[in-house]
Give the backbone structure.
Amino acid sequence: MASRRDQNHGPECPELLRKARVRVTLTAMTPPLPPPTPPATPTPAIAVRDLRVSFGRAPAVDGVDLSVPAGAAVGLLGRNGAGKSTTLRVLAGALPPTAGHVEVWGVDVGADPFGARAVVGYCPDVGGLIPRATPWEHLELAARLRRLPAGWEHRARDLLERFDLGADADRVTAGFSHGMGRRLSVVLAALHAPRVLLLDEPFDGVDPVGVEATLDLISELRVGGTAVLVSSHLLPLVVRATTQAVVLRAGRIVGAAPSAELDGETGAERYRGLLGGVRG
Ligand SMILES: Nc1ncnc2c1ncn2[C@@H]1O[C@H](COP(=O)(O)OP(=O)(O)OP(=O)(O)O)[C@@H](O)[C@H]1O
């Protein structure tokens, strides 16, 4: 029976070995990406005013106001169906809002969704990976679509190593575990060092190595001025990843607090209070 590595056309495949050799040569010859000229920082980096999204008659997001300064990280919390992913999809330019005004890094998302995608890095909660493509092919596609300058390979290699995906760079993602897919989705969102990073469930099913790599990446991008929004059900990790947290319920913000105040058992209890009960 063919091993999993064989099925995924692992590095022993001569064609891939040849490609890998070419890539190593290119990587060695091309300098790392030059430090980007910092663009004028809009204030705030993420601005959401009275956002409303409806699917049919039911409102999924029902009048959300949100403001995230450059270099800040905010956690989006709330029960299943609270409207977190829908909010992030609108910010990423992937879903048009029903009403309201949304800006990312000074770009009006409703008026210019393509412009918004240029400044945003988005890790969706599900999907986004091509089963028959390898991580390296995903990265090549992302670099081409974003027209990244020569040298992106250096950052791509570095990110793959940091997220412990270096050895799997040439395996098709169809054979990836859930956590591996999550780690690759974070890498893809961060490749172009976006001004706004949107992470939907980045820690879901991810091992401690991937969790630490994600937390480090968030800190590093924040130092460079990136604004970060993280949606997750894992409260202790949201506390570590962010400085502020907002709680959504039925499409509305029902609470906001410094993330540190949601730490430990007392914080968890406060959070549970904000979540509301059944039908709350
Ligand atoms: N494409 C869609 N079509 C119809 N309804 C949708 C669609 N996407 C989301 N919804 C509905 O919008 C509401 C908010 O969903 P959303 O996915 O934003 O919640 P969430 O807070 O991210 O939940 P979870 O924590 O389970 O991921 C839910 O009632 C959901 O059923």
Summary: The chain has one domain: 41-275. The domain at 41-275 is CATH 3.40.50.300 (Rossmann fold). Residues 55, 60, 78, 80-86, 125 surround adenosine-5'-triphosphate (CB under 6 Å). The first helix runs from residue 4 to 7.
